[in-house]
Amino acid sequence: MKQIENILSNELKNIQDSGLYKDERQIESAQSSIITVKGNEVINFCANNYLGLSSHPKIIESAKMALDRWGFGLSSVRFICGTQDIHKELELKISQFLSKDDTILYTSCFDANGGLFETLFNNEDIIISDALNHASIIDGVRLCKSKRAVYENSNMNHLETILKENQDSRQRIITTDGVFSMDGYIAKLDEICSLAKKYNALVHVDDSHATGFVGDTGRGSIEYNNVINQIDIITSTFGKALGGASGGFTSASKNIIDMLRQRSRPYLFSNSLAPSIVNASITAIDLIENDYSLLDTLKKNTAYFRKQIESIGFTIKSGDHPIVPIMLGDAKLSQQLSKQMLEKGIYVIGFSFPVVPKNQARIRVQISAGHSKEQIDKAINAFKECGKKLNII
């Protein structure tokens, strides 16, 4: 046996023994509030399907129509022969939705973040990143030759200190998640923008866990914080609230987007986003812009679940986002609770290191506009029963 096999075998055993091994459950149905797992229907509380659009009939119809009209795929990158009229239509629609000059599409938001920093910044610049930023931002920053600094999560005093100390850099850019995906915390973008103005810095927000449903009209954390016109660069995804398929984008000024089209490697060297995803994403934005009822339902469901889960004795992270982390601490305990909940017909997943810090294991519940009150009540009752059985509450 080659040495790598022995090394990996031992490491995988250590992961399993510590309760950190991540099994992948197979879903035998479409993504929805109710899914089929091993032949059993269960209520899904861990998808990023915030508005329930993954199985919305208009989204599915739009994707089917795109297959008939524009085909399955482009077999090319954008600048060769991979740009269709619907790609430009979606880019315009997002730009208008987020009040930006222009937008560029990527196969994922991970790619959008991966192709952002090295294209725009060099060793004369500094990138200042929140400590809890998504892995895609971290990896994107690693690809860049700029100086780097990390400030404590949402700690504005620490951020200001770093900005003060780096006024000699050619450019300063502050990069942050709009919503921190493991905690449901919304970034303090209003304060970040004030500091950026004071110290002449750019601001980048990855709004993947906010676009389409956070804010009064679903414009995201930038709307929630009333800074839509103060954010320089927005990256986000179609893979969560906007239909839940895949694909991402960057919205910014025309010069920034033009430079990304010329130099951003994930854009230049990846196939164009599939027509069915593009057309369905256009429909998703139309649905959100023309009917706020899904946003209202999501807010009501979130407030109700948060109140009820705390009332039965669980510790959650505060906030009003539909990401609701139920804090357990122990990785094995999170796996046990997840398993028992599935037996009661509730699909949730335990999160542990390295996805979250050590000793901060949790069940991350995600509420959807697609959930009924009866489904939420069933989940709360199951948490109560399992929590008592495992001596959590």
Overview of this protein structure:
This protein is an alpha/beta fold and 393 residues long. The chain has helices spanning 3-17, 57-70, 78-81, 85-97, 109-114, 117-120, 135-142, 156-165, 189-198, 221-224, 254-263, 265-268, 275-290, 293-311, 331-343, 373-389, and strands at residues 34-37, 40-44, 102-106, 126-130, 147-151, 172-177, 179-180, 185-186, 202-206, 233-237, 248-252, 323-329, 346-347, 350-351, 361-366. It has two domains: 17-46 and 292-389, Alpha-Beta Complex (Aspartate Aminotransferase, domain 1), CATH 3.90.1150.10; 57-290, Type I PLP-dependent aspartate aminotransferase-like (Major domain) (Aspartate Aminotransferase, domain 2), CATH 3.40.640. Helices cover 42% and strands 17% of the residues. The strands form four sheets. A seven-stranded mixed beta sheet has the order 3-11-10-9-6-4-5, with helices on both faces. A three-stranded mixed beta sheet has the order 1-2-13. Strands 12-15-14 form a three-stranded antiparallel beta sheet. The longest helix is centred in the C-terminal third of the chain and has 19 residues, at 293-311. It is globular.
